[in-house]
Amino acid sequence: MESQDGSEPMSNRGTTESPFVRLLLLAVGLAYLGLFILLPLLAVFSQALSRGVATYFEAVAEPDTMAAIRLTLLIAAISVPLNILFGLGASWAITKYDFPGKGLLSTFIDLPFSVSPVVSGLIYVLIFGAQGWLGPWLAGHGIKIIFAVPGMILATLFVTFPFVARELIPLMVEQGRDDEEAALSLGASGWQTFWHITLPNIRWALLYGVLLCNARAMGEFGAVSVVSGHIRGETNTMPLHVEILYNEYNFVAAFAVASLLVLLALVTLALKTVLEWRYDYHGKGSRH
C-alpha cells in the first residue's frame, strides 16, 4: 500500500538508503550465504555421491556407521526429555515465584553458552575419571562413566540444557501470572492449571526449544569427544565417526555420514521455520 503522496510506505522502506545500497547489501548477503553455507553443503553431498549411489548406501549401512547412528539417537532420546523437564521446571520457578538466588539460577542456565564444550568434557573427566574426585569410588562399585555412554549423556546434557529454558523464560515473563492466578482462584489444582492454562500458552516455544535441543544433541562433537574414548562401534556418535573415517582417508564414507547430519540439519531448519510461522500466527492471533 502506498502513502497518500504516492511514496513507498515507511514500513516497507525500513531505512533511508538508496535502492543501489539496498541491492548492494542484498547481494553481499546472498554472496556470503552462498559461499559459506550453500557451497559447503553442496560439497558434502558431492563428495558423498562421488562414487555413486550404491557406494553411498553401502557406507551408510556399514555396521560401525549404524552403531554410531543408533548411539546418536539413544543419547538424544535420553538427554532431550531430561532437558524438557529441567526447562519447564526452571522456567516455572523463575517466572512464577520470587526466591533467594533467582538471578543466580537464571545466570547459571546460560553457563553452557559461555563454556567451551571441550572444557565441559574435561570437567566430567576430572570428576568421574579414573584419577578424578569420584573415580576410585565408582571403580570400586563397578560403575563406568568416562569413556562410556553415561559420560557421553552427561556431556550432552551439559551443552544442551539451556535451549528449552531460554525459549520459555522470556515468553512466560511476558505472559505474567494472571491466567494461572485466575485458574487457581476458581478452584483448579496446580496440575490442572499447568495442563490447561500454562502448557497451551507455551506449546510453540516449547516445541521450538525441543527442536534446537535435539539438533545440538545429535551434532555435538567437542564435549562428547573428550569423554567417549572413540571406541569404534561402541562409543562413537555420528560426528565422532565422521572424524575417524576422515582421518583414515575414507572420504566417501566420511562425507556419506556427514550428509546424514546435513539432512538432519535441513529437516530441523524446515521444522524451525514452520514453528516460527505457527508461533507468530498464534502470537498475533491470540497472544496467548
Q: What labels would you give this structure?
A:
15 helices; 288 residues; 77% helix; mainly alpha
Brief summary:
With 288 residues, this protein is mainly α. The protein is built from 15 helices and no strands. The model has no long low-confidence stretch (mean pLDDT 85).
Helix-strand makeup class: mainly alpha
Total strands: the figure is 0
Average pLDDT rating? 85
C-alpha Rg (nearest Å)? 24 Å
Question: Rough shape?
Answer: globular
Strand content: under 5%
Following the backbone from N to C, one meets helices and strands in this order, namely HHHHHHHHHHHHHHH
Low-confidence stretches: none
Please explain how this structure is put together.
This protein has 288 residues and is mainly alpha-helical. The protein has 15 helices and no strands. Helix 7 packs parallel to helix 13 (222-228). The chain is globular and about 65 Å long. The protein starts with 9 loop residues before the first helix and ends with a helix.
Topology summary:
Layout: H1 10-13, H2 19-48, H3 53-60, H4 63-96, H5 102-109, H6 111-114, H7 117-128, H8 135-140, H9 149-160, H10 162-175, H11 178-185, H12 190-219, H13 222-228, H14 238-247, H15 251-286
Helix pairs in contact: 2-15, 3-15, 4-9, 4-10, 4-12, 7-9, 7-13, 9-12, 9-13, 10-12, 11-12, 12-15, 14-15
